[in-house]
Design brief:
This is Olfactory receptor. Strands 2-1-3 form a 3-stranded mixed β-sheet. The protein has about 300 residues and is mainly alpha-helical. It has 12 helices and 3 strands; from the N terminus they run βαααβαααβαααααα. The termini are far apart.
Length: about 300
């Protein structure tokens, strides 16, 4: 077997939508608007949940974490993607690529775990209301949220180090608009089996397992709400569950499609469209689905806004 010629990589070229100028012109204003809504909506949720004492509950604590995650997640790649949509120079340094890959994997993995934790929190609140303050204590909230962040970071660092230590040869063109790990691995000329095994194990632990847990939690919630005598109470619970499940299915469905489908040597434009769907659209919808439809959040937002206006 002949040795593979590999050279030190200093930068990568992110192909993105280069072959589709019409898509670049479409995605720039669209992604800019969605990113702005994501920043404003999620920042608003964090500010309101911190400033209003009535929202100092486990549910809003986890919502605050989700909002911070969504801001970090989209900020790992959207600003650079927007620059590249308007520029012919679509390069990123080797270190920048590794950092972007690690942060994107970390925040995405943490969000998978956090969505499952949030479903468990709602299960306890609806199905075990009398014991809820004891079962979901302040200390447990911090422990669960901290564990999700740490586990996501450890997983992503491991996967990134293994992937970026591989030898790269030939062209440096990443067939994606970010340093997405699967797209980068296609450029490696060494044995990628170890990296693929880590990705598969991580995908199984963070995709089907949490999703099954979420579905089980909401099934139990549904069974409990069906026994609620009040029609208004049942309607509120059904509305909340359906909204939460819609975002969960959107996020998990597209991620499972990306990371658990059969590996292909050829890059497809559909992969990048799906990435935009789960990485840009979902964080934008989360404030609306999880919080802005909630009367408590609306009242708290009005109260905080009134405070700001009064202090001027």
């Amino acid at each position: 077997m002949e040795p593979v010629n590999s050279t030190e990589v200093s930068e990568f070229f992110l192909k993105g939508f280069s072959g589709y100028p019409a898509l670049e012109h479409l995605f720039f204003p669209l992604c800019s608007a969605m990113y702005l809504v994501t920043l404003l909506g999620n920042t608003g949720i964090v500010v309101v949940s911190v400033l209003d004492a009535r929202l100092h509950t486990p549910m809003y604590f986890f919502l605050g974490n989700l909002s911070i995650l969504d801001i970090c997640y989209t900020s790992t790649f959207v600003p650079l993607m927007l620059v590249h949509l308007l520029s012919a120079q679509k390069t990123i340094s080797f270190l920048g690529c590794a950092l972007q890959m690690c942060l994107s994997l970390s925040t995405g993995s943490t969000e998978c775990l956090l969505l499952a934790i949030m479903a468990y929190d709602r299960y306890l609140a609806i199905c075990r209301p009398l014991r809820y303050p004891v079962l979901m204590s302040h200390q447990l909230c911090w422990l669960l949220a901290g564990a999700a962040w740490v586990l996501g970071l450890c997983k992503s660092v491991t996967e990134t180090v293994i992937a970026m230590r591989l030898p790269f040869c030939g062209h440096r063109v990443v067939s994606h608009f970010t340093c997405e790990i699967l797209a980068v691995l296609k450029l490696a000329c060494g044995d990628t089996s170890i990296s693929e095994v880590f990705l598969l194990v991580g995908a199984i632990l963070l995709l089907p397992v949490p999703l099954a847990f979420i579905c089980l939690s909401y099934t139990l919630i549904l069974a409990t709400t069906l026994r609620v005598p009040s029609a208004a109470g049942r309607h509120k619970a059904f509305s909340t569950c359906s909204a939460h499940l819609a975002v969960v299915m959107l996020f998990y469905g597209t991620v499972i499609f990306m990371y658990m489908k059969p590996k292909s040597k050829e890059a497809h434009i559909s992969d990048e469209v799906f990435t935009v769907l789960y990485a840009v659209v979902t964080p934008m919808l989360n404030p609306v689905i999880y919080s802005l439809r909630n009367k408590e959040v609306k009242e708290a937002a009005r109260k905080v806004w009134g405070r700001i206006q009064t202090s001027r």
